[in-house]
Amino acid sequence: MDTASLNFSTYAQWSGILTVVCLLLAILAFIFQWGIRFRLVGVTGFMGVLTAGLFALGLGLFTRTVIPGAVRFSLVYDNGATQAVITVPQSITKSELDATLRQAASDLYSYGRNGIGSDNNLTIRARVLLHPESGVSLPVYLGQVKRTLSNRDNGQMQIEIFPESFAKLETYTEKSKKS
């Protein structure tokens, strides 16, 4: 399940209803002196904590920005600080790569990353793997994005698209179509 589709506020509402039901059962258990009355108090307390946690998650801890035109990518390397590498499909266009690099910069930003060195930037490189012959893999880097680690809303991202790599990719796909 995609974290962008989780609806914690709905879960918190249902959990709140169940908590109220448990509370009413616990009150009834004390009135009628049922043997499980103290267990129902524990269940009610647990449900209250669960409801509070779901409510907190529903406040937006999992906000995810969706960049239009971005294609799916996979993270293949991340040192947890300033460098990451993603892989993209071979059929990607330059405009899709631009949007995908912006999406990756948004997705991979974290307050926990520390800037090692003087630049304090996160560099994310996008690549495809070509297989020119059997048993040989050739990584081709199509572009990169650099963003600051000090500010989440960074409008100053530096995006580079490598045209020579796209030319190599087009040549490879034309060769593989002829084969």
Describe the structure.
The chain contains 4 helices and 5 strands; from the N terminus they run H-H-E-E-H-E-E-E-H. With 179 residues, the protein is of the alpha+beta class. The protein has a 5-stranded mixed beta sheet. A hairpin with a 7-residue loop joins strand 3 (121-130) and strand 4. Helix 1 packs antiparallel against helix 2. It is elongated. The two termini are 39 Å apart.
Specify the helix fraction band.
40-55%
| Major sheet size, sense and barrel closure | 5 strands, mixed
The number of helical elements comes to 4
Order of helices and strands: HHEEHEEEH
User: Which strand order do you get reading across the main beta sheet?
Assistant: 1-2-3-4-5
Our estimate of the beta-strand percent is 15-25%
Helix and strand topology:
Blueprint lengths: L7 H24 L5 H22 L15 E5 L4 E5 L6 H15 L12 E10 L7 E11 L9 E4 L1 H16 L1
Parallel strand pairs: 2-3
Antiparallel strand pairs: 1-2, 3-4, 4-5
Helix pairs in contact: 1-2
